Amino acid sequence: MGIKDQFQDKAQDLANKAKGSMGEKGDQARDRASQARDEASERSSQAPDQAREAAQEQQDKFDRDYDA
């Protein structure tokens, strides 16, 4: 095995290692994006409930003040 072959093998090893690393990073990024979408979806489904509760509280307060 000559020096040229050693350099080619080393270059191939490094290329494979880089591809593997990029694959892991891509998987992690997809997982984080999916998690963020899930959290945003959950928050958006809670927002109408919170708005409705706040409106009801305001109405109740108005009714109490008006009755007094």
TrEMBL record:
Annotated region (Disordered), positions in chain: 1-68
Amino acid composition bias (Basic and acidic residues), ranges on this chain: 1-12, 22-42, 50-68
Protein name (database record): CsbD family protein
Organism from which the protein derives: Streptomyces venezuelae
